Design the sequence.
């Protein structure tokens, strides 16, 4: 009995070893029907500058200053400080296009409307809310008015 109290995870693992797992079959079926994987693990998105931009995720769990805020995060390696080919003004125009052409069609049609939409570009993968001083990141905030994104200063 003493061993079980000291090593409960080990004892539990020994009991589960002989059980077959359904995951290999489930993963194989998902891979079969998923189709080709998008580049860099995300969805490529066309922007006016032609730079390579990939959708990373949408964050809806962090409230903004005025309520519900949806954050659409994108990977854009061409904005890198040292090796980038896209300047801040060009990135800003791309972010406006991402808000109007990518974010707006993905806003919820029912439920509360977001007060703000934030578009972010990063030259590398960055965990949401974590500091990454080595990364180049641009953020723009928008209010949705009449189905279009209106830029707002932070």
Sequence:
């Amino acid at each position: 009995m003493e061993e079980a109290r000291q090593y409960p995870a080990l004892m539990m693992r020994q009991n589960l070893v002989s059980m077959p797992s359904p995951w290999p079959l489930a993963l194989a079926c998902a891979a079969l029907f998923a189709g080709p994987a998008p580049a860099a693990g995300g969805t490529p998105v066309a922007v006016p500058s032609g730079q390579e931009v990939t959708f990373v995720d949408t964050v809806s769990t962090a409230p903004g200053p005025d309520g519900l805020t949806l954050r659409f995060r994108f990977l854009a390696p061409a904005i890198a400080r040292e090796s980038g080919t896209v300047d801040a003004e060009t990135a800003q125009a791309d972010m406006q296009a991402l808000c109007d052409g990518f974010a707006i069609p993905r806003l919820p049609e029912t439920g509360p409307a977001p007060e703000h939409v934030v578009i972010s570009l990063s030259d590398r993968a960055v965990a949401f809310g974590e500091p990454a001083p080595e990364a180049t990141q641009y953020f723009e905030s928008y209010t949705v008015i009449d189905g279009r994104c209106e830029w707002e200063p932070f």
Notes: Residues 1-40 have pLDDT under 50 and may be disordered. Strands lie at 43-45, 53-59, 69-75, 116-122, 137-145, 148-152. The chain is about 25% helix and 25% strand.
